[in-house]
Amino acid sequence: MESLQDIAHQIYQRTGVMTSSKDVEKILSAAAATPHFWEIITLSQKPFSVVAEIIELLRQKNLLEVEKNGDIKFNSKGLEYLGSLKIAPKRAYTCHACEGRGINFSKLEDLIKKFDQVTINRPKAISDYDQGFVTTQTVVGRIALMAERGDLEGKKLLVLGDDDLVSIAAGLSGMPTEIVVMEIDDRLVEYINEVANKYSLPIKAMKYDFRDKLPEEYVGYFDTFITDPPETIEALEICIGRGISALSKEGCAGYFGLTLIEASLEKWNVFQQILASKFKVVVTDIIHDFNHYVNWDYLLNTVGKQYEFVQVEPKLNWYRSSMYRIETLKDSKGIENEHKPCELYVDEEALIYKGDKA
């Protein structure tokens, strides 16, 4: 049978995403633990295109079968192959109560309830801006994390893009003195301002595209920023660079999510070098799988149409990202120049990749 390295090489040729034998091993271990494609992605934490192509390759090699309901199961030949490589099913020991965030949500029950009540009529996620908002526990978890790190209470908070409605949760917490939302979607700008007016929250939302220069009055103005950026290298650099340029001095903080589903460790490495060398900020925290996303309605219309095992409704909130916290130093600097065009959403590692664009 083929080695894991051989499979990795074939997957690289198919996807253009650097793939190692260890990546293949982790995906096989996840597939041995669950028959559900979307959970395989969650357990393996590897790019969507890589996982999909490995499952398809194993099917073609008659190592696994796809049942009518889309379940993926190793056959006897596949189980023998796993045994020969000593690959066992993935084990998970995450705390169910906090979902691995290390946050005591029992202290946040009032905020959770209030946020759900206030945002019951929130705008739906749409594909125009690659939207997909996070769960209520994630939103409130972000508030708790920023507060615990001393980055929220009595602070001025910038939210760059807010389909998650973090601004509303922060306003309801009563901790920040001022919250500014810069958001490209007119629906969200209008909605956030309406909620802020109705509940007398210290929030101002405005239309903004992070490829454009920050409004002059907000350069060096904030104590903290939070964002959920697109994950091409260009978009990550510009979005986080804008956030850093909005911070006032050393010791300020930025928060953002970064997946392993649309951003491989190779991309993490490149971006971490940008953070350290270009922006001169320090990564103080990376909390694995902190952000859990609600399954968005348009998912199956946009990805993996050629794979029957992908065209199955997810049974769990499978799309997750790690939470980064960065802190500015004396010589930290962001991006303050004029409009910077860039590719926002699509590269070899994106959910919508070349295999979906036929």
Task: Give descriptors for this structure.
alpha/beta, 9 strands, globular, two-stranded antiparallel ribbon, 7-stranded mixed sheet, 358 residues
Write the layout of secondary structure elements.
Blueprint: H1 4-15, H2 21-33, H3 37-44, H4 48-60, E1 64-66, E2 72-74, H5 76-84, H6 109-118, H7 136-148, E3 156-160, H8 166-173, E4 178-183, H9 186-199, E5 203-207, E6 224-227, H10 233-245, E7 253-258, H11 265-278, E8 281-292, H12 299-302, E9 320-328
Parallel strand pairs: 3-4, 3-6, 4-5, 6-7
Antiparallel strand pairs: 1-2, 7-9, 8-9
Percentage of residues in strands: 5-15%
pLDDT averaged residue by residue: 94
Bin the helical content. 25-40%
Give the assembly state of these chains: single chain
| Residue runs with pLDDT of under 50 for 5 or more positions | none
